[in-house]
Amino acid sequence: FAAQAVIAIENARLITETREALEQQTATAEVLGVINSSPGDLAPVFEAILEKAHSLCGSDFGSLQLYDNGKFRAVAVRGMRDSLAELLRQPIDPLPGAPPTRLLGGERIVQVADMAVYAKHRPDHSRAQATSEHGLRTALYVPLRRDADLLGYITAFRQEVRPFTEKQIALLENFAAQAVIAMENARLITETREALEQQTATTEVLQVINSSPGDLAPVFDAMLEKAMRLCEASFGNIASYDGDCFNFVASAGHSYFDEWVRQNRVARPGPGTGFQRMLDGKQVDHVADIADSEAYRNGYPVRRALVDIGGFHTVLTVALRQENILLGAITVYRREVRPFSDKQIALLQNFAAQAVIAMENARLLDEIRQRQAELRVTFDNMADGVVMFGAELRLTAWNRNFQELLDLPDAVLADRPIFADYLRILAERGEFGTENIEAELNRRLENTDQEFRAERTRPDGRVIEVRRNAVPDGGFVLIYSDITERKRSEAEIRAARDAAETTLRDLRAAQANLIQAEKMASLGQLTAGIAHEIKNPLNFVNNFAGLSVELLDELKESAAPGWAALDEDKRAEIDETITMLTSNLEKIAEHGRRADGIVKSMLEHSRGVTGERRKVDLNGLIDEALNLAYHGARAQDQTFNITLERDCGASIAPIELVPQDITRVCLNLFGNGFYAANKRRRDAEAGFEPVLKVTTRDLGDAVEIRVRDNGIGIPAEIEEKLFQPFFTTKPTGEGTGLGLSISYDIVTQEHGGTIQVESRVGEFTEFTIRLPRSSHAASTGAAA
């Protein structure tokens, strides 16, 4: 009977431990459910963590407190009186020797067996007395840590002197770790949202730049509005610099100072001012309180007006600089003394770079307009006679030489005749020199949209060359030239036209390079930041998965004495449960390692800004990029699925390239393929299976990558536009139109390769990339 009693006791213990483990797992799952259902909202997460932790640890009441700006403040409380809860919600400095201060010192946990005894031994024991007066006896403090940094702590109190067990302490530590994960998730979501807002604002400003060529006023207004909103500023202005003074060209924010700016459009830089620091070569000037600045104390008018009229205190100024040449400055202000964050400073620098782009665009467009004005002067003063007929084939414009050359009276030209009547007038004057006038008229009225050239002798004996050139919007231009002057006239037109085309080409090249550099840098920084932040919680998951497997093994060893006493069915049931838990943990570890590989790929991908070439395994690079793209698509849409087919060429020797940039190209093509195939799946009949196939081949002096999807396809009329910046086939908001343009530059300019597309609507789209092995070929391609 004694043996049976031991078995019964052991069974009861195992059942109790199993029940406790199940309760802990259930509580953990419920907390994770709250985290998933409340992305970025920490209040319900903290409440759930506190409720579950206290319930499982046998705590009467307690709180969850965060540490910020050197103070502790409760953000969640449970089971306590309102007066104590209100006390804990107030920011409080850590007291010397107090439990929170000991946590700041690095202690794992702090447990006070009896708060009444603890309070008697502290001279500064107001808070300890308050807690003991509210019936708090045993107290447990468990920290929330990220790496070595203390983020806060969870407290659990009992109204009796009964210390918490190691198992209860470990359980509370687990809930503290979940709270840290939730805080990290919220921070990442906030950063992602901020990054999206910044990218959206940048895109909107670029759209204003594109829609207002040469007109800087709407560009500056839009830029200032976005900058002030994202930087949480109450006033702002943009000033250009002419080499002597700063001229305010835009201002925003309703204040008395705004009226002062409109009345005082010019500011000379004074000693100690942000403008003077820009002239001294500084890129950023950040003043926490203008009223405490040297320029204000010295009576500089702008600084005085800012504080005394506008009521502003914190100011941030960023230079507008083009190749070390100061073009101006953008400034934002706050009424309160509240310095701008590093992110907000970087954001204003980004807007400053866009302002420089807009100013450079305006300068280049102004040059084009000057060229056009020169062309107009040339048009009016050229030796040739020129006449233009519009889309309705009616006379619209002519120059003086045309009228003098054909000796046409003002009355004829004032009527602006149609082309047929114009030809009849010439025929009546004997200009055609033929008896069959109608046949000649019919011949000249045919194919007026095509070029035409003819020579004829006028009644006065001069030989005239007539050229007809079509106008893109309809109509054509007739040029009448004396053959003896033709070469000189053609040289003038050609020189003027070539100059204007060269200026436009330089403008487009400058825009493309600036946009590509900015997008690649932003994408690399964002990818690196997200990957670094994911790595810590991922390491936590991997480590705890391995630790849990070891704990299960220890559990099996500890339960061995009572194992033989169990009946066969019970042993099978428990063994099945342990095996299932072990299998689940192994799967968690397996996928954790997979995720860690993806994070490493993201980090390597983000370092692409260096542009360093090195030899890489092409098939390995393709495989990593494909997995990264697939898991990224799954993370955005849990319903997304697609069959991935790989046809990798055997024994492809390593090729020298920039791996991060080629990975970026692959991610772009894979993402487009996923989108096209998934869209056809949604629109197609039942049974359609999306497929994306990637093929690699060694061509000897080059390698080939093919990406083929069975998606919606691309119409032939837009294939030639695919690699143009900002062109996209996706709906508004689903694509930037820069991905394929950047990919084209990476393949052709950086690597000297080629990228081609073949598609049939409703069947497939296939991109083919060829990369030369020779670095000389790549550099030649980039130079071309």
Give a verbal description of the structure.
The chain is of the alpha+beta class. It has a 6-stranded antiparallel sheet with strand order 8-7-6-11-10-9. Strands 2-1-5-4-3 form a 5-stranded antiparallel sheet. It has a 5-stranded antiparallel sheet with strand order 13-12-16-15-14. Strand 14 and strand 15 (463-470) form a beta hairpin. Helix 1 (2-37) runs parallel beside helix 7 and helix 7 packs parallel to helix 13.
Q: Low-confidence segments, ≥5 residues, pLDDT <50?
A: 779-784
Characterize the quaternary organization of these chains: single chain
Total count of helical runs of at least 4 residues: 25
Mean pLDDT: 79
* Percent in strands: 15-25%
What class do helices, strands and sheet pairing give? alpha+beta
For the record, give the distance between the C-alpha atoms at the N and C termini, rounded to a whole number.
94 Å
Output the radius of gyration.
38 Å
The major sheet is characterized as: 6 strands, antiparallel
**What would the principal axes of the Cα set say about the shape?**
flat
The helix fraction, in percent, is: 40-55%
Number of strands: 23
What's the arrangement of strands in the largest beta sheet?
8-7-6-11-10-9
Please give the structural blueprint.
Blueprint (H helix, E strand, L loop, with lengths): L1 H36 L4 H16 L3 E8 L2 E8 L3 H7 L10 H6 L5 E3 L2 H6 L5 H8 L4 E9 L2 E10 L7 H46 L4 H16 L3 E7 L4 E7 L3 H8 L2 E2 L6 H6 L4 E4 L6 H4 L3 H9 L4 E9 L2 E10 L7 H40 L3 E5 L5 E4 L1 H7 L3 H5 L4 H10 L8 H9 L6 E6 L5 E8 L5 E7 L3 H73 L1 H4 L4 H39 L7 E3 L1 H19 L6 E6 L6 E3 L1 H25 L7 E8 L3 E8 L6 H4 L19 H12 L3 E7 L3 E9 L2 H9 L1
Parallel strand pairs: 18-20
Antiparallel strand pairs: 1-2, 1-5, 3-4, 4-5, 6-7, 6-11, 7-8, 9-10, 10-11, 12-13, 12-16, 14-15, 15-16, 17-19, 20-21, 21-23, 22-23
